[in-house]
Amino acid sequence: MSTEGESAGSQVEGQVDSRVGDRDEPGRAARAGSSWASLRRLGPYLPLRPIGWRLIAAVLSALLATLCGLGIPLVTQRIVDGPIATGDLAALSWLIGGVLALGVGEAGLFYARRRLVSRPASVVEANMRADLYRHLQGLPIAFHDRWQSGQLLSRAVNDLATVRRFLAFALIYLVVNSLALLAGLGVLFALSPLLGLVVLACSTPLVVISYVFETRFKTVARLAQDQDGDLTTTVEESVLGIRVLKAFGRGPELVRRYLVQARQLRGTELRKVRIIAFLWAALVALPELAIAGQLAVGGFAVAGGTLTVGTLVAAVTITSYLVWPMGSIGWLLSETNQAATACDRYWEARDAERTIVDPPRPVALPEPVRGHVRFEGVRFGYPGADREVLRGIDLELRPGETVALVGATGSGKTTLTMLVPRLADVTGGRITVDGVDVRDLRLADLRRVVATAFEEPVLFSASVTENVALGAPGISDDQVHQALRVARADEFVAELPWGAATRIGEQGLSLSGGQRQRLALARAVAGQPAVLVLDDPLSALDVHTEAEVEAALRRVLRGVTALVVAHRPSTVQLADRVAVLVDGRIAAIGTHRDLLATNAAYRHLLATDLSPAELSPAGPSPTELSPAGSGENLETTEVAAQ
Ligand SMILES: Nc1ncnc2c1ncn2[C@@H]1O[C@H](COP(=O)(O)OP(=O)(O)OP(=O)(O)O)[C@@H](O)[C@H]1O
């Protein structure tokens, strides 16, 4: 038993589980008193069937094993005071058989305990991890902006492993060893109240030390867990950003940062070890003191004839047997503390509110979907920011129309595009599709109608086909190829080693920026959405490729309503109308040509990118600039500042 305890103890000492992260302030504060409530919240993960009964059976097995162990000294007493004292060797074999039976029983029950407990503990861990993953998928972008991914990773992996260890071992032995201690003291008092008192006197300081230890260890354990999260974040970010770091020669700086964090973590771990070392020293010394006290008191009693030698031997043996239950209490409490802290951290992420959810009474879009999008007095401010980014956007995208959104950097263009598929919710006003507020639609319905391609084209470690089909689950290979053709990605995909079945690696790193952007475009058009929201989708393309993708996009845009964030004149020219975003409002709206002629802010915004011919009001005609547009309907409206 002590072997198991020691190995588990050293596992705790050697374990590296820490914390960091400046963004996850909500998870930072170690909330005293919340830990036990966090542990109690494990209840729903421990239903009686099939998990609870196994845990109960494991506790019973461990308890019976302990009783078998406690029985051995009692038989020993019989042997010493019986056959050995009287010379009646006939009874000796029976008693030795009894000791053997108890030993074999103890071993068998240990085996049963391990078998019984391993499955439920790993099932609970897996279920909690799956629930966390599911929950994270449903949390708004604002949550992920605030939380470091390393923190989430460390909660999903390290903290849940701590919970598993707690369920498989600490929980059971906290119950069993407490009972064993009570039973052992009971037997000792029955054998000799004096010897029982000696042990009780030595075990009382143990409770005090455990309490002090528990309080100190809790704080340090939480700090270590959080530092572990920070270190994980640093490692993760440096792996994901390896190109930037190499290009700017910042590798050594990152290494320094890593070393500082690793040193902090090591310091915290060593503090944990010092606390544990102190505790273990006390917990080992006190039971030894109890044995010495028993031998002294018992020795005098035997000499005085008030105690038999067998009783003294039995009492000392029982006390030796209680060394593990006594010594383990503090360590088990520390494991319990770590598990409680791990649960705190787990629930912090799980309790984050899903603010973007389906409405209670969803409305269906009228069929056929026309893709008529209206922004009505839309306002938006990031949580915690003093100033709203969008301050009353009024904009209409007629069915089939392409509107380019132009604005200075940081003016809120990306923010505006996020609001249409409800990656964030407006804080004022509303956005409608075919007259229905997007918040009244089921999220799945909305995102089937509205497809998005972001400026940064994120691809997943999967085949080209899987990456494209992400935009429209269940589409056929033919439809994937059609989408690739539209995005002018079919040619380079055909040249990949396994064509569209080629796995394109983490974040599609093996592809060029332009290739990745074209795949992201293919993904956006794969589901043939009624509304396309494109956040500067041509930014990473070279001039030649840009012309190719533009040609393809023109075809796509003809059939859909589109909002396209544009930085370049070439992208603007895809649009029927251009909206100019200034100071959180639409300052002007009109054709590219008319805005050039009438709007100084617009000219200023595009000036650096335009050739003198394009800048001239007598430049290309609207029809040349926007072949998808219906020239006669185009209008120029100066929107008065509100
Ligand atoms: N997650 C966020 N939390 C707080 N503020 C944010 C967040 N994302 C963006 N902002 C702020 O909102 C403003 C608008 O940002 P946004 O990315 O929408 O601008 P943009 O017009 O798309 O810029 P760019 O042309 O450079 O892409 C900026 O001031 C930016 O700092």
Automatic annotation (TrEMBL):
Key words of the record: ATP-binding, Cell membrane, Membrane, Nucleotide-binding, Transmembrane, Transmembrane helix, Transport
Compartmental location: Cell membrane
Family matches, as SMART domains: AAA
Comp. bias (Basic and acidic residues): 19-28
Molecular function as annotated in GO: ABC-type oligopeptide transporter activity; ATP binding; ATP hydrolysis activity
Domain ABC transmembrane type-1: 56-338
Domain of life (superkingdom): Bacteria
Membrane topology listed for this record: Multi-pass membrane protein
GO cellular component, one term: plasma membrane
Biased composition (Polar residues): 1-13
One of the Pfam families matching this protein, by short name: ABC_membrane
Gene3D superfamilies linked: ABC transporter type 1, transmembrane domain, P-loop containing nucleotide triphosphate hydrolases
Keyword Transmembrane helix: yes
Alphabetical list of InterPro entries matching this protein: AAA+_ATPase, ABC1_TM_dom, ABC1_TM_sf, ABC_transporter-like_ATP-bd, ABC_transporter-like_CS, P-loop_NTPase, Type_1_exporter
Chief location: membrane
Region annotation (Disordered) ranges: 1-31, 613-642
UniProt signal peptide: none
PROSITE patterns for the chain: ABC_TM1F, ABC_TRANSPORTER_1, ABC_TRANSPORTER_2
Domain ABC transporter residues, every copy: 373-608
Residue intervals passing through the bilayer: 51-72, 92-112, 166-188, 194-213, 273-293, 299-324
Protein family per UniProt: Belongs to the ABC transporter superfamily. Lipid exporter (TC 3.A.1.106) family.
Protein name according to UniProt: ATP-binding cassette, subfamily B
Organism, as annotated: Goodfellowiella coeruleoviolacea
